[in-house]
Amino acid sequence: KQEVTQIPAALSVPEGENLVLNCSFTDSAIYNLQWFRQDPGKGLTSLLLIQSSQREQTSGRLNASLDKSSGRSTLYIAASQPGDSATYLCAVRLDKLIFGTGTRLQVFP
Amino acid sequence: NAGVMQNPRHLVRRRGQEARLRCSPMKGHSHVYWYRQLPEEGLKFMVYLQKENIIDESGMPKERFSAEFPKEGPSILRIQQVVRGDSAAYFCASSPEVTGAEAFFGQGTRLTVV
User: Fold this and answer.
1) Contact residues, chain A, for B33 at CB < 8 Å
2) Is the pLDDT of residue A9 over 70?
3) Alpha-carbon distance B94 to A1, whole Å?
4) A with B: how many residue pairs have Cβ under 8 Å apart?
């Protein structure tokens, strides 16, 4: 059974810091991994999708890496801003998406 | 191309009533997934459907819950005889019929049972 874990559960940092969010999964038989952002009371916004054959994806200040053999992914956020404050979720997919419990990020001015 | 549309956005039901949640996938998407998010918890998989077929319902409670995705029209998640514990946000996602394709989520329906 696939299990997805995210650490830390919560993170509070001053504006401008570079951040690393971690995601680990127990079964490496996946098609892809997606990182999402969820604002309080809102839906999910897809940030990055990494196919199982890829090592990393970049979008603006975000960079996600995938090491399928070790069951790990990291989301790197450069030069964090208060607008980055949200919950970040990773999800692995074979037939369906299995989500981690999320990292709640607060960036203060 | 509109995104995944869910309605209603908010739904209030009294205990014992029925709740119907609708999800219209993105154009060209034939796969629909339903998830439930309890307050302060993560997203839990409920059911995976393709047109007219239930592919995986391993996350659905055995009683009171059902889902369908007909040939025409939106996917429907139906909860009969709602109880307070059903209060949650219900999210729908869709993807095309391509292995490993990106999934897109709707804004969710927030169900409150009073």
Assistant:
1) 96-97
2) yes
3) 23
4) 54
Q: What is the C-alpha to C-alpha distance for residues A59 and B23, in angstroms, rounded to an integer? A: 29
Among A78-82, B1-5, B29-33, whose mean pLDDT is lowest?
A: B1-5
Amino acid at A72: R
Residue A100 pLDDT class (50, 70, 90 cuts)? very high
Q: Provide, rounded to the nearest whole percent, the portion of chain B with pLDDT above 70.
A: 98
Predicted confidence band at A10 (pLDDT cuts at 50, 70, 90)? very high
The answer on pLDDT for B1 being more than 70 is: no
Contact (Cβ atoms closer than 8 angstroms) between residue B89 and residue B36: yes
Helix (H, G, I), strand (E, B) or coil at A43: coil
* Interchain proximity A46–B99, CB inside 8 Å: no
d(CA A104, CA A93): 22
What is the phi-psi region of residue A41: left when phi exceeds 0, alpha when psi lies from -120 to 50, beta otherwise? Answer: left
CB contact under 8 A, B33 and A32: no
